[in-house]
Amino acid sequence: MTTEQRWFTVGAPGYDAADIQARVVRQMHERTPGGLVERQPATGFAAVREALAALEDPLEDLAVQVSVRDERLPIGNSLWNRMKVPFHQLSALYVNDLAGRQTVINVGLADVLDELVDRLETAALERDREIEALKSEIARLSEQVARLSTR
Amino acid sequence: MPPVVHQIVPNFAFADAVGNQILATRDLLTRLGCETQIYADHWDPRLSDLVKPTADYLSRQAQEHWLILHYCICGHANHVARETTGHLVTYYHNVTPARFFFGYEPAAAACCGQARRQLKGFAGHGATIAASDYNRAELESFGFSVKAVAPYILKLEHLHAGLNTPGSEALRARFAAPDLKTWVYVGRIAPNKRVEEVVRAFHVYHSQIEPRSRLLLVGSRPAGKYSDEIAALIARLDLQDSVIFPGLFPAESLGVFYELADIYVSLSEHEGFCVPLVEAMSFGVPILAFDSTAVPGTLGGSGVLLHRKEPQVVAEVAHEVIGNHGLRTAIVGRQRERLTDFEPGAMRAQLHKALIAAGIPLQPLD
């Protein structure tokens, strides 16, 4: 049984993980005939998609903040003259808050892109390894064919 | 003349892995006759007597001094350390990837993302020590040349010594339930720990396998969306009476919860070391942990390392470990062997060796 097939590794001298797994599978099927509720951790591009989806919340928050700011614009001139200093302070407060949120989003996006690049690099390395393995296999088979044809 | 070796960290927390390692390093440096001071941007009030603000370091730094930066999160301390006029040694505890906090704690996501990106700027800048082999591999992937690995110096004796204090007696009286099978998780309620998956797995165990059971989630529960989601999940699964949050406890009281545990369960997807695994080993509690990041390195072939974690799988494996006496004994035996690798004297010697490898001219350790 390879590690990929094994559901777990047990550090217990004298016990075989394959035997325990067989027992676990049997008990599980008895209890839940419908089978497993599949839940694998996000890997590869799924992790990137998950991270991007999670960025939607702060983006929505940002949109709400923009609409709140619009509703607080003053109406009359005299009122504006009296209000402009505190209003300026209020605007600065919101702008700072919005800038902060934008920074959070920028940092988040940068992190997702980092993750994406890492995944792409890993995928490229795996592909290279597969290509090398296939090349070796072709060379081996070609040799075999050559040997057979010379007989 | 022993060297002057200071330590700096963005956040000096009480009773967490980073804070404890800073204190253990301070003890070692003091024992070696070094002048030493801890600097931080923020700290827990219980540590106020031991720490000075980061800004104070700027006026005290000197070319011949050494500075150990504990790298774990973003902060001003990182910038100060990067620009120190002294010799820099970075001890890498790991930084949780930001993606775990998206949608839950935007500020934490930003801070972690920033810390991970800025970490790359420390490559080739001073010497680097990693807290685990996993951390070393991660640093090397960022282009670092790591001088040594020095795992945490764990004061497990504090956990055991505290078992007979009045405080622990009170906790035992409050939480003892010998007729219940007890799952225990110790750690912060944080998205990377995947606490929701522990709850889902426990739900299967509780509802389909062993109704006389409970789950103790021991640790800090920061207010926020993630904690709210966990609470909502517990309510939706009707587990309010069976999933308990006892709170955050210092080492002196924490041992009681390991003592009460039939199994320790961690389905975390990001750990730089995972101290609770070693604590569980010291109490003879069988461990069920998901195969991620530093977890297999810390388990070192002991415990049960899960390669998948659907709730039914976790629940059935937990049932097998709890119910099969022979298997449980064998697992605990192997864990006890592994525990000897974390003996504090050996860890202290390893840290001493690592600091020397990083260039600090320390005296020999007695």
Helix-strand layout with pairing:
The complex is a heterodimer of chains A (about 150) and B (about 375).
Chain A: E1 8-11, H1 17-31, H2 44-54, H3 56-71, H4 77-150
Helix pairs in contact in A: 2-4, 3-4
Chain B: E1 5-12, H1 17-31, E2 38-43, E3 51-53, H2 54-60, E4 66-71, H3 76-82, E5 87-92, H4 106-119, E6 127-130, H5 133-141, E7 148-149, H6 156-161, H7 166-175, E8 181-186, H8 195-209, E9 213-218, H9 225-236, E10 243-247, H10 251-260, E11 263-266, H11 275-282, E12 287-290, H12 295-299, E13 303-306, H13 311-323, H14 325-339, H15 344-357
Parallel strand pairs in B: 1-2, 1-4, 2-3, 4-5, 5-6, 6-7, 8-9, 8-11, 9-10, 11-12, 12-13
Describe the structure in brief:
The complex is a heterodimer of chains A (151) and B (366). With 151 residues, chain A is mainly α.
3D structure, described in words:
The complex is a heterodimer of chains A (151) and B (366). Chain A folds into 2 domains: 1-39, no CATH class; 41-119. Helices cover 77% and strands 3% of the residues of chain A. Chain A is built from 4 helices and 1 strand. Chain A has helices at residues 17-31, 44-54, 56-71, 77-150, and one strand at 8-11. In chain A, helix 2 (44-54) packs antiparallel against helix 4 (77-150) and helix 3 runs antiparallel to helix 4 (77-150). Chain A is flat and about 95 Å long. Chain B is α/β, with parallel strands linked by helices. Helix content of chain B is 44%, strand content 17%. The longest helix of chain B has 15 residues, at 17-31. In chain B, strand 8, helix 8 (195-209) and strand 9 form a beta-alpha-beta unit. The radius of gyration of chain B is 21 Å and the shape is globular. A 7-stranded parallel sheet of chain B has the order 3-2-1-4-5-6-7, with helices on both faces. A 6-stranded parallel sheet of chain B has the order 10-9-8-11-12-13, sandwiched between helices. In chain B, helix 7 (166-175) packs parallel to helix 10 (251-260), helix 8 (195-209) packs parallel to helix 9 and helix 8 crosses helix 13. At the A-B interface, strand 1, helix 1, helix 2, helix 3 and helix 4 of A face helix 4, helix 8, strand 13, helix 13 and helix 14 of B.
